Amino acid sequence: MSDKKIVTRFAPSPTGFLHVGGLRTALYAYLVAKKNNGTFLLRIEDTDRERYVEGGVKNILESLYWANVVPNEGVTLQSESIAQIGSHGPYIQSERLSIYKKYADQLIANKQAYYCFCTPERLAQVREERQKNKLPPGYDGFCKNLTKEEVAQKLAENQNHVVRLNMPDDGETTWNDLIHGEVSFKNTDVDDQVLLKSDGYPTYHLAVVVDDHEMEISHVVRGDEWISSTPKHLQLYSYLGWTPPVFAHLPLLLNTDKSKLSKRQGDVAVLDYKEKGYLPEALINFVAFLGWNPGTPQEIFSFDELVQTFNLNRVGKAGAVFNLEKLDWYNREYLKKMSADDFKNYISAFIPENMKEKIDNGKMLTRLAPILLDRISKGSDLVKMYDEGELTYFFETPKYLPEKLLWKTTPKDQTILNLQGIYDLLSYSKDEDFDVDHVKEEIMEYLQDKEKGGTLHPMRLALSGLDKSPDPFVIAGVLGKKETLSRLKIAIDALSK
Ligand code: GLU
To answer: Measured from the CB, is residue 13 less than 6 Å from ligand 1?
Structure first.
């Protein structure tokens, strides 16, 4: 990279909640800046007033801060309020209207842009005709040919107008994209883009160029959907006499069936992932791999390792598949790294109300936590497991038909003796020793030269009421001595009737 200070930016439009694709763009821009001791700037591009969503800016900031992708210039959160920091502000485009107007006027004066008075009806007609003649969509340049007098008169009459880019009719616009290599567009295929709208707001195209220049952005990292806009932007840089930044266009995110990942899928909002119990480290690690790979088999990267290792030259051009199962895998890996106490705290937040009532003491949760860790990928899985009755037996004495206690050909009398045998054995255990390992050791030793199914099957059933469940030692360990013995006793009594 060049000697110039590295400044990257994330420039979202607050048209909804920050989605995972946006987080990926922000993360890559952030990593490029951090790796080079540069600046990562957040700018809000809110010039499309029709699509403006109240609360959007706050959501973007909360999502970024939760994921640790924190800007050090521009729009930030300071004690939970939105604040702008830095000397290139304001960083919210709707607060910069006079700046865009100044450049639009300059472009008009230099004939690099022109007023366009075409009505929506005429534009619809042009669109239709161009379609019929198999021409690329775009404006036909009608107002470019208006005389000075005609323009002056229409302006004096207060006719509705926009300002359009005067794109050259010949030549090509080419740039060296950090991800795509050399990209080239014929200028005739590039539209005379609207730069200033009739409401006086700039379009994204004018605003993005002015701001990236004024905010001294060195690297523009953004999604592939902006590639076809880049020639317009480069033309503006050239007209305004500015050096353009380096561009890196990131590959699209795809669903597993290779269709385009839609940001309208409610599920892809970053804070939805938080709600579901994904850890920010896991989501970031997963998102980092959406298009990038380190070129080694390493998959788990701490944030610092990402900063060290990430490089845009290892980002592919092809669409990156968004695979939720992989995200679940990452989350489990990070959950497994947690200390027992941290996991207990984490999982506590997901315990459904009616389950909470049943966990009468913290001790039970301490014993239950490792079992949950074995069976969930994220906190919200617990809710599902509980709702589907998979955990009920931990909290309620199970109900079952006594004959279900019998194992294959083992007779009833023998089953009673077997259950009584482990009942007596476990009665000698100390309350505080009564955990999975202890129960397992005791019982397996006791069963060493005995037939195991005739004891372990009724034990499992007595404790869970189910033929299939986690192994009976695990359940006993969670239930504790008192409840385990009580359930064994109920089973013995039921068979003895
Ligand atoms: N405001 C644009 C968006 O929402 C930013 C595009 C860019 O980074 O230039 O995606």
So the answer is: yes
